[in-house]
Each structure stands twice: as structure tokens, then as C-alpha cells.
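Posting this for the archive.
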Amino acid sequence: MGGNTTRPAEDATAIADELQTVVGALVRQIRAVSPGREVTLSQVSILKRLDREGAHTVADLARLDKITHQSVTVSVAGLVDRRLLRRVPDPHDRRRKLLVITDEGKRLLTERRDAGHENLTDAIADRLTAAERRRLSETLVLLRRLLD
């Protein structure tokens, strides 16, 4: 059996460790170039969810993100103060308030996405050869399979 003495489980562990390190570093690099860094990661997560899924209550957000109601309340208050979110009455239960992302909140997300995307695009174009870009593209297929 050739010179490979590494067992598949050990190999998978090493790959997982390196993948986690590299993906984490890429995410940090993208966040570093994104405008609106005065918005916390929790707040960005809330904005993204509301942009993607529509209106939610504070309780919904806490449950979906598996964080405390109090943490969401604090994050939401900051977003409302900055006019990135607004509270609207729930049409089914007037006692409840739904959180809705504002146009300003959507603009902030777009700016963050664009800045991170541009930075990553430039890095791929400037630092990788055509052959390396093809290999990276092929690797993305495998990474997507990990999400299934």
C-alpha cells in the first residue's frame, strides 16, 4: 500500500483543522475591510437574517440564533437607534412588535458584502495563477458537498 501511513480519520482531522483555520482567517480578513465595523457581529447577524427572512420578533431571533433574549434586545436597541432596524406592530397580534430592516440597514449590508467581495476577488486575481484559480474553483464543488 504505498508510502501513505496516515489513516483516513487522521487525514480528515488534519484537513478539518486546516480548513477551519483558513476559512476563519478569510472571514476575518473580509470583515476587516468591510465598512461599518462599529456594528457588532451579532448585529450584522440580525441584519442578515431579517434581510434574508423578513420580519421577526426579538424572541424569534433569540431562538433562531440560540442566544439570550437579553443579548438580542441589546443588539436590536443599537440597531434601532442607528435606524438600521425599525419596530412595527405585528398584524396578527398588536401587542407584539416585529423587527424590520430599513433601507439604511440594507445599504450597510450591501456595502459590507461589496467591500469583502471586492477584496477577495482582487486577492484571487492577483495572487493565484490561472491554473490555481481553476483548482480553487474545483475545490469549491467539494466544499459545497460538505454543506449537504
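The chain has a mean pLDDT of 90. The two ends are 32 Å apart (CA to CA).
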